[in-house]
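User: Run a structure prediction on this.
Assistant: Running it now.
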Amino acid sequence: MALSRGADLRWLAQPLNAGRANTRGLELESKFPLKAVPGKAPAIDLRASVGRNWSSVASVPGPDNSLDQQSPLSATLGVDYKGALLSGGGGFVYGRGGPMRNSVEERSDSSDRRDLDLYVLWKLSGGSQLRVCASGLLEVDALAGGSYADAGGLARRDTANPGVMQVRAVLEAKF
């Protein structure tokens, strides 16, 4: 991060890729249709994934000197049902937040992310269908903060974005 002082006594932060970083990651993903099980299983598909990331930026002293905005851990769980006239499903997403050191002077932190989304699809006559989706059902607030400290003092900024549930209905028609 390059910081410079403007003529009007404001500071300007500008992302800068100036150095080396080491990254490592592991990701596992699985999809499993219940119809693969012998017998009379419903038309349900299960899906799951988990990802773990590690990184360190050489020019930034540790701890927490990882790549900017990199989630150290993420996971998803989902289920989908597909019927002749009615389909639906949902998914849960988790992303771990935490502290991060962006430069010698700058630090940031963020809260964990948790999202739950659901959908239903009705097939109507004439090739039309109605899709209803609900997202952000957990209404979890997103909290983030950052600080800049040097010999001149400390500046801190905190933000809270409220979690909001959204519902959307879409009627798809073929002409």
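The mean pLDDT is 90.
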